Amino acid sequence: MAESNGTKKTITLRVKRQNGPGEQQYWETFKVPYTPNMNVISALMEIRMNPVTLEGKKTTPVSWDSGCLEEVCGACSMRINGVPRQSCTALVDQLEQPIVLEPFSKFPVLRDLMVDRTPMFESLKRVKAWVPLDGTYDLGEGDRMSPELQQERYKYSECMTCGCCLEACPQYNDKSGFIGASAIGQAHLFNLHPTGKNLKADRLDVLSGPGGVVDCGNAQNCVRVCPKKIPLTDAIAAIGGQATVHNLKKLLRF
Ligand code: SF4
Ligand code: SF4
Ligand code: FES
Questions:
Q1: Among the atoms of ligand 1, which is closest to the Cα of residue 172?
Q2: Which of 66, 101, 190, 209 lies 20 to 30 Å from 128 when distance is taken between CA atoms?
Q3: Residues within a 6 A CB radius of ligand 1
């Protein structure tokens, strides 16, 4: 909620800052003018217009990432009052003050609240999260997909690679090697596709190996924080079962 100093309302933000990759983090506090219905990004824009701390010290503008401003691209994700979420849909009126902003802790910080989400995209490459198509000749019509299958796949297709599920996961960090819930969800999405399933064995090779689905501790934090309410634990259960069968088949082949 906004504070009133007698004349106009203000809001207070406590921001974890970092000047560049690998540099020391530090905190700064800002007081900015309140406007009705403002979100965290508009509060950050106020800081950018007047980068002066609560103590009156001139500082650098806070850096953050954003794209769509409507919870579709995932770029503006950060920890807001300790919760991984998108800053474009975090409304100031619904947040406790001071509003504490931190970059994700599971990704390399580029500057302030901006992180490098490349590891997530690399994981998508590892599980071949695409439908294999050869564009050199007319492929004709694709396989038909039932409305039920379309419905099932639709939820997974909403993933915006925001990283909230990885930030909240106790198993995911730069030492564990665990691939994380989002890549498992996307592998499931493409395994369910009539053409995408042609790469199912390749995906299961990755997901049944080190850092694969077996490393999931079933804490279910991922499904709780996913802004798109993707049924990640269903995907983890499905891929877990498929990975077991896949490994057994491989064993019997030798
Ligand atoms: S169920 Fe738990 S351990 Fe598994 S991916 Fe989700 S948060 Fe991580
Ligand atoms: S599964 Fe949900 S929380 Fe994870 S990256 Fe996708 S949208 Fe974000
Ligand atoms: S700016 Fe795209 S999700 Fe917030």
A1: 8
A2: 66
A3: 169, 171, 181, 216-222, 233, 236
- In this structure, which residue's CA is closest to atom 2 in ligand 2? 226
The residue assigned the tokens 């947040």 is 95
Tens of pLDDT, residue by residue over 61-96, are: 999 999 999 999 999 999 999 999 999 999 999 999
pTM for this predicted structure: 0.93
Separation CA 64–CA 103 (nearest Å) = 9
Beta bridge partners of 15: 28, 101
**d(CA 117, ligand 1 centre) in Å:** 18
Q: Taking the alpha carbons of 17, 72, 125, 200 in that order, is the dihedral positive or negative? A: positive
* Axis crossing angle, helix 181-191 with helix 200-207, rounded to the nearest 10: 160
Number of H helices, E strands in the chain: 8, 8
> Which residue type is seen at 160?
M
CA distance 48 to 121: 30
pLDDT, tens digit, 9 for 90 and up, residues 3-43: 665 568 999 999 999 999 999 999 999 999 999 999 999 99
| Rounded distance between C-alpha atoms, residue 191 and residue 195, angstroms | 8
Cβ neighbours around 150 below 10 Å, total: 11
CA–CA gap between residue 178 and residue 50 (Å, rounded): 41
Determine the Cα–Cα distance for residues 131 and 142; give it in Å rounded to an integer. 11
46 near 126, Cβ under 8 Å?
A: no
CB 87 within 8 A of CB 39: yes
Could you tell me which of 3, 6, 2 has the C-alpha nearest to residue 36? 2
